[in-house]
Amino acid sequence: MTVRPEIEPVLRGIAEAVHDRDDHVLRRLLSRLAEHATTDDLYALRDTLPPLRRITRSPTSRPANARRRG
To answer: Which of 39, 55, 52, 45 minimizes the C-alpha distance to 3?
Structure first.
């Protein structure tokens, strides 16, 4: 299954906006994707992307907003 050709430019734009950290463009493109993408497009996108690697934390690390005990 492949992503429809009409959706490809939007996906490329999303990737570029994420890379450039352009929130305004990213929001606009995500909105366009939400309007035009079908469930089949999302499944095709999932199948196209490489698997995500889980980020492992060291046992002593914790989120910055976590409370200290005691």
So the answer is: 45
Burial 21-44 (b: 16+ CB within 10 A, else e): eeeeebeebeeebeeebeeebeeb
59-68 confidence digits (pLDDT tens): 665 666 666 6
Name the more confident of 17 and 58. 17
Residue 6 structure tokens:
């009409």
Report residue 65 as tokens. Answer: 């907003």
Decide: pTM greater than 0.90.
no
Helices assigned H by DSSP within the chain: 8-20, 23-36, 39-48
